[in-house]
Write a structure and sequence with these properties.
By secondary structure, the chain is mainly β. 0% of the residues lie in helices and 49% in strands. It has no helices and 11 strands. The protein has strands at residues 3-7, 10-13, 18-25, 33-39, 46-51, 57-59, 67-72, 77-82, 91-98, 113-114, 118-123. The strands form 2 sheets. Strands 2, 4, 5, 6, 9, 10 and 11 form a 7-stranded mixed β-sheet that branches. The mean pLDDT is 97.
Amino acid sequence: QIRLMESGGGSVQSGGSLTLSCAASGFAYNDYCMGWFRQTPGKWREGVAFVNADGTSTYADSVKGRFTISRDNDNRTMSLRLNNVKPEDTAIYYCALAYGRRCLGLTPDRYNEWGQGTQVTVSS
């Protein structure tokens, strides 16, 4: 059974930092694309970053230069480091996997399995 579990969310002041983690189980983690998404009430789910099976990554323009995605294949985890956060980064953050070694972008419907999410709240 595929399982993705996010952790590390919380409250942080504007300009601060936070690290989110995603623990994966139930599939051949090394062989899949992984991504981070976020969603706020009343808005579409937004792609934040993805990392291919080979470790290469892509970021949404809104987070480029501030967030860093990484994966640890030995421990079957993925992280998202959030630096210099802004109030508009407030959202529920989700990790997701897409079947395939290369991610096909940051569109949510390209991803097949999802975690339950972790809340990040940035205060000004």
